[in-house]
Amino acid sequence: MKQERSVENAVLAGPIVLFLLAILGFPTLLSLVYGFSETTFQTLTTPEFSGLKNFRDVTADPTFWQAAWFSLRFGAITAVLQCALGLALAVYLAPLVRRHGWTVAILIIPMIVAPAMMGLMYRLVLHEFAGPLPHYMYSWFGWSPSFLGPANVFKTLVVAETLQWTPFAFLLFLTAFQSIPDDLREAAAVDGTRPWRLFWKIELPLMMPTVFVALFIRFIDGFRVFDNIYTLVGAGPGGSTTSMSIYIYETFLRRGEIGKAMAAAILLFVSAFVILALAQRLMRRRTP
Amino acid sequence: MKPRLTLRWIVFAIAAFVMNFPVLATLVTAFKSSGEVSRNPSLWIEAPTLENFATVLTISDRLNVYHYLWNSLAAALIGSVLPMIVAFPMAWAMVRRGYGRAILFPLVVNLRALPLIIFAIPLYMMYATLGLLDTRLGLGLLLAIVNLPLALMLLVNAVAEIPVELEEAAHMDGARLPRLLFKVVLPLCRPALITTFVFGFITAWNEFLFGLMLTTREAVPMTVGASFFFATSGGGVQWGTASAVMVVAALPPLLLGLIMYRRITGSMVAGAVKG
Questions:
Q1: Largest CB tally within 10 Å, which of A275, B23, B55, B184?
Q2: CATH class of A62-286
Q3: Is residue B223 less than 8 Å (CB to CB) from chain A?
Q4: Which residues of chain A register pLDDT less than 50?
């Protein structure tokens, strides 16, 4: 009986384990091999062991650190903006959404559009001759900033990312807000609690776990950003919008420095892992 | 109460307009003639025309939208159905027997938070050796990895909600495991399976990085194909045509998403809370 069970368990787990091993296990091994080897596209099958050389190359490359700093900043700033906006919208629009559920569908449209498409769409929106935004800026204010110029490109990307993913934060907060029991609010109303105070003293503390989750998810997604930046500006003026993902992509496909790209990917993996572990520890402590 | 709702309508309208502005501008531009695009960049269309869509939907040597659409469809179907197939038995074993909960569950769920580029390079090498580069199957397998965490989470949630008495009753009647899984548990998981499919399909259709890296000609998906329209011809981007392409590319996930928006919002929240 017991033996039959363990055979059954193995069969049940088989498909997913085999799938993971085939698609992720083998490549992970490969990446370790190449990360520590000297390789180009011409010598793919004969990697030559070179120890930590690739890691030294990467950590000596100022572009790598620029990309790391860009990703960190981009992830942190967009996460905070999206959560602040999303929280405000969710709390303020909750009574409207309760009566007219379809309004949610309109607000989540940006989330369903591919980030790569969104980047392309912003190319149209911001184009100096064909774009509606510069057009209206000129006709209303007689002036329009160079949205994708070196001075503004970071801000533009932050705004674009924020506008696309605020709906995600909005949705999480809306659900959290709606699941707060109504009798809590009614009791507060009987006590004569002002709405503003109700929010700060009761509603926000109850939504705090969701705030952490939303901040974390949005930070991770901002940190690994690729699609929309790549389609909108590529590496940007002077490489100023090179995120970690774009750095690895360019090192690999454009410059063919396989070992170096792989070393950067391994470093990225390790840092993502550390961030993940820390965040989960933090969250576990907050929500006993 | 009433005037306060009015103010909320206004805030809703502004938020909806600002967040959807790129989509709106693209939609408008897609209906402008090429002459009008260069003359009139506003959100107003003077003479609506379908010529851009006609151009996009006509097959030319360089750009074949049907080909991209078919690639995206095939890869997205593999990428959304395969995770359900491999995750379903595991989800049941995790819930009912606690098997794999300690290591496999957190491992798969945390995949969601890793930058995909990490796997892209070694997979490129592996695909090059296996001949999977630039194939719909190769792209689909990767998209399946992207969707696996959410599929497993949603299915674990779904199985956990099935009353164990139901399964015990079936067991008493002499149903063996395969029969129990496919005749009793699977039908009860149908809502979760639909949600997983809708969400997975949209995610897979919208994926860009793997499409860019792992395909060159034969298996180029719609998201990557659409970006080609921005690079063609020396005379700059044809904004009308490019906009029409983007409308075509964004339409399938948008339609699916808007029809099923209640399910998407639900799964988003379920996925986030566990993640």
A1: B23
A2: mainly alpha
A3: yes
A4: 288
